[in-house]
Structure formats: structure tokens, C-alpha cells
Amino acid sequence: MLEVVDVPSRAVARVIDHRDEPSFDVQHLVEAARTAQEEFAAKRKARVKRITGWVSLGVFALAPFAAAAMMPETIVSAAPIAIKAYEKLGYEVNIYGLDIRHIEQEHKIINGARVLMIKGEISNPTTDIRKIPWLRFGLKDDNSKELYSWTLDTSSRPLRPGETTSFVTRVAAAPELAKNLEIRFAHPAEISSNPKP
Q1: Does 196 map to a domain?
Q2: pTM beyond cutoff 0.70
Q3: Each residue of 110-142: pLDDT tens digit?
Q4: For the chain, what is the domain count?
Q5: Do the Cβ atoms of 170 and 116 come closer than 8 Å?
Q6: C-alpha angle 22-27-29 in degrees, rounded to nearest 5
Q7: Is 108 inside any structural domain?
């Protein structure tokens, strides 16, 4: 006769019962992700706003310097005193819109005296009629120290667009140490102020 013996089963149970509830669920994960995105967007927006503020301040602070560099003639026309600042920076501002060109120097002996003769042209490259201001001449030594200066009234009619006129000036007994010549348009305070050499 057969005897039936009960053997305990060693197989793993097929159903796992989780009695512990998870500490988070999908809803909490979605909320955490949304909160993180909102914080990131807020920080990025604040950063962009801060950078934009600094850039705006920089542009505002540099705008006058950029205008002064790009439109010196306009600045000097509006505030003539500004020409001194440009001169100190070594920048010559041509508010007249005229060009001085084709300069020639000749040394001659006239009646036993040494004479320096300077010839040149003034042209109007603009599209407007331009009045010709007085010219200022300066003789300088090797160290760029001015030894003698004088002004010349061109007493010419205004130049039409593209027109050119010439000038001639003479100086008797120019300083012997003079090596360089500077020609520019005279400032109002310089007109008729011809110091002796």
C-alpha cells in the first residue's frame, strides 16, 4: 500500500504582497518636476534681466563717447568748446567741411630778404555751399614747438559743391629753426592775432 507523505513546497510564492506603501507617487514626481522647471525659468529670467540691465547701463554710459567719436563735427558745431577736448586728444575736427590740399612751399630772396611763400588749394567735397573761414599757419621746429604763426583772410566767396579755390601767403624773415608747417582753419580767437617771430 502506498503511503502519502506531505512535503512542504520549496517553490517561491507567485504573488508578492507589498504591505509597505511607497513614500512617493507619480503625482508628487510631476509636481516636483514642475516646481524645478518653474524655479529654473525664474532664475534664468532674473539672470537675463540682470544682464540686460548691465548692458543697457553700459550702452547708456558709452553712448556719448561713441557719438563724440562718430560725429565730431556735429558735437563741435553744437558745443564749440568741445574742440579743445578733441585737440588735446590729437584729433583735428573739420567743422567747415572743406579740405586744404596741394600745399607748396618756396624759399625766395626778394630785395635781399629771405621770403617763404606758401601756396595751396581749398576744396569743397560736400554737397552744400560752404563759406571759407580764415586760415591759420604755424611754423614749428623739430620738436613741434611753434615758433611763429599768422592768419590769412581768404576773402573769397563761398565755395559751391565740388568747387576749388587757391591761396598764397608770404612771410618775410621766417625763423631759421622752422622745419615744419601746419595749416588749418583758424578759431575765432586766433583771427588777426599774429605774434612777431
Answers
A1: no
A2: no
A3: 888 888 888 999 998 888 888 888 888 888 888
A4: 1
A5: yes
A6: 80
A7: yes
